[in-house]
Amino acid sequence: MSALVRALAKTNPRLAQKVATVLGAKNVGLLYHLVGFDQLTHIISTSTLSARNFFDGISTTRDKQLNRYTGGPPVIFFKLELDGDKLAERIKITPVQFKSLTDVEFKGEHEELIKAIKIPNIWKYVTKFIFIRANIEKDYKYVSDISDQFSAKWLPRVPVPFYVQEGSQIKKDNEFLREYHFIR
């Protein structure tokens, strides 16, 4: 507790509590979590975002343009936009900079680690479900093999709006989603 809050607590406890809340608030902003089909089906079926086995938490980025990463799934077609401020109210979020096994630092990833193994009710924190257009077009053969089944079984269960990322723009684009059979 800061000296200011302690001093206020003596004369105005209610104001002291509000000041403590403001001073303790995190300004995390939007975070992005990239997911492949397997992880996404798990998220949709359980409404839970889970950490991968080798992390002490859930890896996210502040860089909305990051669409692939070293050590990630071979094909990433989706990302979840998360309300970092809302998450930080309940879970500790810390900036990290990873090093490779040979001590090479990965700079510029703007990475944030959510210090939790699981986040239940994840849809409370998801603001957008984003399809990564460039990755879908690049790996269309893979997408075409599973998109009809995936669309029929899984996508109707996603309770947040769908968006498409094209370059640096994230926008609604139902025409693209229909063309690739993600929506009807």
Folded structure, characterized:
This protein is α+β, with helices and mostly antiparallel strands and 184 residues long. It has one domain. Helices cover 34% and strands 24% of the residues. The protein contains seven helices and ten strands. The protein is elongated, with a radius of gyration of 19 Å. The chain starts with a helix and ends in a 5-residue tail after the last helix. The model has no long low-confidence stretch (mean pLDDT 82).
Task: Give a concise summary.
The chain has helices at 3-11, 13-24, 37-46, 84-88, 133-138, 140-153, 174-179; strands at residues 30-35, 48-50, 58-61, 78-83, 93-96, 111-114, 118-120, 126-132, 162-166, 169-171. With 184 residues, the protein is an alpha+beta fold.
